[in-house]
């Protein structure tokens, strides 16, 4: 079994195990919550999509909100792969959707995000219905429909349709050149998917957990300080939690 087939099977298993229909988008925030993944959404530099960090049984994912919402969703699925299947990975700065064949872990995570968010059977089922009323042609209206069902970026869906041999290289080039934000609005879609949110939001009880471990004397003071500050150790993020000054190791 080659890597593509292996990762596709994993994505199918995850969709089934989490009771996600192939005809719907995935509630990634709910998926993270169910798996106790600490999630921080925050603006980062443009060359970073997300950051994955794991310590013992605790996992933190940081998502760059300077990226479009569609890109953020792809990144969340990418990082979820690291959480579930890269058991020895502790820290990774990710620039997703590059499909880098020199880095098996990053390639696998990109493939997983593709198959997980945009299942082949789901896409083909929707197309079979939509194209009956569209003269059998995949045009920009059909593309927008798919993007907004699966909550993925314009680029991601174009690539997926091309990989499935549902559109030609020439048509893919045409779609890549479309000014997608204004086009989406013209077709009546909300622009959120195609814009960056630039928000800072934390979905986590991380600080409370660390303090509980320290209070119960399950970790040393040194480990306590390390855990509170490990999220800033990459040097790319200003303190993401609103810690009191006495907790910060200057």
Give me the secondary-structure topology.
Blueprint (H helix, E strand, L loop, with lengths): L2 H15 L10 H7 L2 E6 L7 E6 L2 E7 L4 H17 L5 E4 L9 H14 L2 H11 L9 H11 L3 H10 L5 H8 L3 H7 L14 E3 L2 H10 L5 H9 L21
Parallel strand pairs: 1-3
Antiparallel strand pairs: 1-5, 2-3, 2-4
Helix pairs in contact: 1-4, 3-4, 7-8, 10-11
What does this structure look like?
The protein folds into 3 domains: 122 residues, no CATH class; 75 residues, no CATH class; 31 residues, no CATH class. Strand 2 and strand 3 form a beta hairpin. It has 250 residues and is an alpha+beta fold. It has a 5-stranded mixed beta sheet with strand order 4-2-3-1-5, covered by helices on one side. It has 11 helices and 5 strands. The radius of gyration is 20 Å and the shape is elongated.
Instruction: Please state roughly what percent of the residues sit in beta strands, choosing from under 5%, 5-15%, 15-25%, 25-35%, 35-45% or over 45%.
Output: 5-15%
CA radius of gyration: 20 Å
SS-derived structural category: alpha+beta
Helix content: 40-55%
- Output mean pLDDT: 89
User: What's the number of extended β-strand segments?
Assistant: 5
């Amino acid at each position: 079994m080659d890597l593509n087939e292996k990762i596709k099977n994993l994505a199918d298993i995850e969709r089934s195990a989490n009771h996600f229909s192939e005809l719907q988008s995935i509630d990634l925030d709910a998926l993270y919550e169910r798996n106790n993944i600490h999630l921080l959404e925050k603006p980062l530099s443009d060359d970073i999509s997300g950051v994955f960090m794991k310590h013992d049984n605790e996992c933190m994912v940081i998502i760059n909100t300077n990226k479009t919402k569609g890109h953020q969703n792809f990144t969340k699925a990418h990082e979820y792969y690291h959480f579930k299947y890269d058991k020895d990975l502790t820290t990774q700065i990710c620039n997703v959707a590059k499909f880098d064949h020199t880095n098996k872990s990053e390639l696998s995570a990109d493939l997983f995000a593709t198959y997980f968010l945009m299942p082949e059977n789901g896409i083909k089922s929707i197309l079979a219905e939509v194209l009956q009323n569209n003269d059998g042609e995949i045009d920009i209206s059909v593309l927008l429909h798919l993007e907004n069902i699966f909550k993925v970026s314009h680029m991601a869906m174009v690539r997926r349709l091309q990989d499935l041999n549902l559109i030609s290289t020439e048509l893919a080039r045409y779609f890549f050149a479309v000014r997608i934000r204004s086009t989406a609005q013209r077709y009546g879609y909300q622009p959120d998917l195609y814009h960056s949110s630039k928000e800072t939001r934390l979905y986590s009880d991380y600080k409370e957990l660390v303090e509980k471990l320290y209070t119960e004397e399950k970790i040393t003071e040194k480990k306590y300080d390390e855990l509170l500050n490990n999220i800033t150790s990459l040097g790319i993020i200003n303190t993401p939690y609103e810690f009191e000054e006495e907790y910060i190791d200057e």
